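User: Sequence recovery, please. Input:
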């Protein structure tokens, strides 16, 4: 017999937010392998997508609390580890005679161990700090001034994420001078924080919509 999903689970936005949260992190890990130069600005191929992970993280922490946000972060971490292991296994497996894309496949998906460690470390520290700071600010100052909590938590989380990633992976991704290091950290931090501000008009109604959905689930 096939069991039906619990109505509470099927109606709650939480599992869907976690799914998108994990997908954004997984895709960002792949696209971040490409170094990007926009004029004098140095960044990576995930610069346009990764800020969305912090927006979703803010929604999770604001609506569900730190513990629920932490579960989402650890779930994303587990998905990323599984993906990396799968990539390594697929690269290691012998290619068929008709398959001639082994080098390209390994080049794109063969994440260097140092980059993997940097990415996972930055993600874990940044997202947990983001959720923790948001919750602590909410506990101390109440539910008002949501914009300050969102931006304040992002400043802490994004800075820790960017600094940790670059500190570990600098040599691998081609950063070979103090100037380039500072450029990468500052540009990444400012860009991601700016995106948080730009997306506030979306984050606000999203938080409100998720709250209403959870209230309907609770009343059902």
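Assistant: Recovered sequence (220 residues):
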């Amino acid at each position: 017999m096939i069991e039906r999903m619990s109505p509470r689970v099927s109606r709650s936005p939480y599992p869907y937010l976690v799914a998108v949260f994990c997908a954004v992190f997984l895709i960002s890990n792949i696209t971040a392998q490409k170094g990007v130069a926009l004029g004098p600005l140095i960044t990576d191929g995930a610069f346009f997508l990764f800020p969305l992970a912090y927006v979703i993280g803010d929604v999770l922490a604001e609506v569900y609390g730190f513990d629920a946000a932490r579960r989402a972060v650890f779930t994303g971490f587990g998905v990323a580890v599984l993906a990396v292991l799968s990539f390594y296994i697929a690269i290691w497996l012998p290619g068929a005679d008709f398959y001639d894309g082994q080098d390209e496949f390994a080049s794109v998906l063969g994440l260097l161990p140092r980059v993997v460690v940097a990415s996972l470390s930055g993600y874990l520290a940044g997202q947990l700090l983001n959720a923790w700071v948001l919750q602590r600010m909410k506990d101390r100052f109440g539910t008002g001034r949501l914009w300050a909590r969102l931006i304040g938590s992002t400043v802490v989380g994004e800075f820790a994420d960017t600094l940790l990633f670059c500190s570990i992976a600098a040599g691998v991704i081609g950063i070979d001078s103090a100037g380039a290091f500072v450029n990468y950290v500052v540009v990444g931090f400012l860009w991601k924080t700016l995106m948080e501000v730009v997306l506030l008009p979306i984050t606000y109604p999203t938080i409100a919509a998720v709250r209403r959905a959870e209230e309907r689930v609770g009343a059902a």
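Residues 7-210 form a domain with the Arp2/3 complex 21 kDa subunit ARPC3 fold (CATH 1.10.1760).
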